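Sequence in, structure out. First:
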Amino acid sequence: MSQQECAKRRRAVMDRIGPHGVAIVPSAPHRLRNHDVHYPYRQDSDFQYLTGFPEPEALAVLAPGRPEGQYILFCRDRDPERETWEGRRAGQAGAQENFGADQALPISQLDEWMPKILNGREQVHHSLGQQSWLDKKLIGWLTTLRGQSRRGVRAPPEVVSLDPVLHEMRLFKSDVEIGYMQHASDISAAAHRRAMQACKPGVTEYQLAAEIHHEYERNGLTWAYGSIVGGGSNACILHYVENADVLKDGDLVLIDAGGEWQGYCADITRTFPVNGRYTSTQKAVYEVVLAAQLAAIDMCQIGRHWNQPHEAAVRVLTEGLVTLGLLKGEPAELVEKEAYRRFYMHSTGHWLGMDVHDVGAYKLNDQWRVFEPGMVLTVEPGLYITPADDIDERFWNIGIRIEDDVLITAEGPRILTSQAPKQIAEIEALMRA
């Protein structure tokens, strides 16, 4: 991650909290998988955004105007013995030389230094409730300062959440961030193409997942979230994660998978036939979902609001469901009654960035947020048709979702994930190749 970007972000945070504030952001802890085995480490997104520092057991403190240094990074000491077992550490020297800290201090000395840093500040900007150890520490530091008030020591009278400041910043992507997301999208699209070409009856869902993950890792990416590979009826389970079944001739397979590069995510869903050819019924349903997605993407324009892509998708899906005979009545009335929710039960997108479901408000002052340049969202309508007595058997167990990542620009929506084919002819041609 670019240290120039991180420095620019830290300056922006300090400008927003003002000269009397101090911000505290912790790293992510290690997570135990089982016994003495940990999950692969993934840094906390807020901490990564501000520091680029890849280690656990660290704390970033931003103290505008502090003479000894405005950006203080607490981190682990160098320890040759532990590094032999667990890998290299930056230490305090590395934190300053390689990660831009004005002052780097041992994490073991938090209790010694933090009351000094907090003394005389008006607000502590810290997101309570995320890491209980730090909440307890903060209460202890404030209590220590309040106990010394007769000596002229002054504890900050306010603790306010840093989320509104930091998450509003993260919502708007810089050119560097967009470059990271584009790279993640390109490799993720290649992974989807690879899965399409590897697919045939008798292949398992986990084998297709392996093809996707291989494409990530040979290009230096990790996965942004656990891949969903659902064939047949499994495609109607929105967050299907078992990936355990054999793919059958005549079924569709839905793959929702995206990679992560430099902490930035892609999120793509494609649905295609196991044998490489859509049936006429599958094709009819697919074309409805694709039309809904294109209508929703067309609403991703500066000045439109957050819910307009969803509204557009719902209108097209409902009209399509009537045409297919799965709903009966006037489309406008069916939309008002939310009759479509039997087959389409989720929203049409979410913010995307360092987190798959990224931070940022969807409403401001109880009004849907208006799109502005630099925002990135997913657009992902779908239809999920489970067996029922009042549904023609031809439609049973058809689950289709089509998802792309869209950047809001002055020139209109830019689809970051356009390298993943979604037109029926494109998909069938690729699977024949």
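Second:
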Amino acid sequence: MRLLFVNKTGADPVSRGWVLRLSRLVLRRVKGPSFERGAELSVTWVGDAEMKELNRSYRGKAKTTDVLSFPLLEGRRMPRAPKGPLPLGDVVVSLPQAARQAKERGVPMERELALLVVHGILHLLGHDHVTVRQEKRMFGLQERLLKGFKP
């Protein structure tokens, strides 16, 4: 798996290696080892101002949010074992929003970031939570994946 990790905030709550291990776990458990080996994705930490602008530009909401996903394969069928690099897309996380949510929920920052990265990657893989049924499935999968990750 190839990971492009960009931190635009200057804060280092977790390492690139941590993000890589978590991303590999998600891809391997959801799509299998062959898929994971050929996948490419980017994860970027941003501040509230940049996240607010992205949210406004792409979702029409002029406020910050915690995570946005930009899938490159949306609407296309994903191969089980890619023959070459398979670019999945981008996951963008607002570190300040993640920190606020971690504090509100009384969880460590690492736990909140893990949740947001897993959530973002699941969106890249075609999961969604528009309906109650989709939400139950996606959020249940998130929790199972998080239980399997040891920071």
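Remark: The first helix runs from residue 16 to 31.
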